[in-house]
């Protein structure tokens, strides 16, 4: 089958960051404002994610709408996992951040041991795609924990958090431009865009009393979802439906 992951372009990163914002604000809206609670929201989103993954895995190429729907749902579930550990089980953000970092490292280690590559340009088998989505889930969970650790436990706040994670992503981009390993820099950027999107989402949605701009979770979620849908429709109409895989392990 064709590669199941889109080309890494500015549109890719734009949708990725907005999906993380929706994951943060959407999860908060369902759990708090709708009143479903963390447990019910997590179970509901996990069921929708499972259904989306079944459809995604059945495709033989990259299909924009189902791929990005899966990313958004993974973002929400990843957020809910971290929130459940923090709010329900009262596990320290230091512990959860470290635990998710170890779990993600283990996924990468097993993936590389079996497939001999972590390149997203070679997702051409079901096994590789399962490794890919497992890694994506843990990047969202790790990014959520690390973002909450920085903005809440360490007291950076939403404004400073947005600046700090933007600077870190810029540093990763600069390292890539200077010849750093493409696979390593991609995954580092992927992890960092999660806390960036979450901090940005909180900055927009939280009340002014908590350091936000007070737009609310509904408005913020709908605004970003609208842009995501528009970009995905544009990608679909442009015929962005998969490419032949590359074979370089360093690509």
From TrEMBL:
Keywords: Membrane, Transmembrane, Transmembrane helix
The protein's name: Membrane-anchored protein
Transmembrane segments: 30-55, 62-81, 93-114, 130-150, 162-192, 213-237
Lineage: superkingdom: Bacteria
Pfam family membership, one: DUF347
């Amino acid at each position: 089958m064709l590669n199941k992951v889109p080309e890494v372009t500015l549109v890719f990163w734009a949708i990725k960051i907005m999906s993380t914002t929706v994951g943060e604000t959407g999860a908060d809206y369902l759990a708090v404002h709708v009143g479903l609670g963390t447990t019910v929201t997590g179970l509901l989103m996990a069921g929708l994610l499972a259904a989306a993954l079944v459809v995604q895995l059945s495709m033989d190429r990259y299909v924009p709408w189902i791929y990005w729907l899966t990313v958004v749902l993974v973002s929400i579930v990843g957020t809910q996992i971290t929130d459940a550990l923090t709010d329900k089980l009262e596990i320290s953000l230091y512990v959860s951040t470290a635990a998710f970092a170890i779990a993600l490292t283990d996924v990468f280690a097993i993936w590389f041991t079996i497939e001999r590559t972590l390149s997203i340009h070679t997702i051409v088998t079901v096994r590789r795609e399962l490794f890919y989505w497992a890694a994506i889930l843990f990047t969202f969970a790790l990014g959520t924990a690390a973002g909450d650790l920085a903005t809440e436990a360490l007291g950076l706040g939403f404004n400073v958090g947005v600046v700090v994670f933007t600077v870190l992503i810029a540093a990763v981009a600069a390292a890539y431009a200077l010849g750093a390993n493409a696979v390593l820099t991609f995954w580092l950027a992927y992890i960092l865009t999660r806390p960036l999107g979450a901090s940005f989402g909180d900055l927009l949605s939280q009340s002014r009393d908590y350091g936000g701009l007070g737009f609310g979770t509904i408005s913020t979620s709908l605004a970003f979802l609208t842009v995501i849908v528009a970009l995905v429709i544009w990608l679909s109409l442009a015929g962005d439906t998969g490419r032949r895989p590359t074979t370089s392990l360093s690509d």
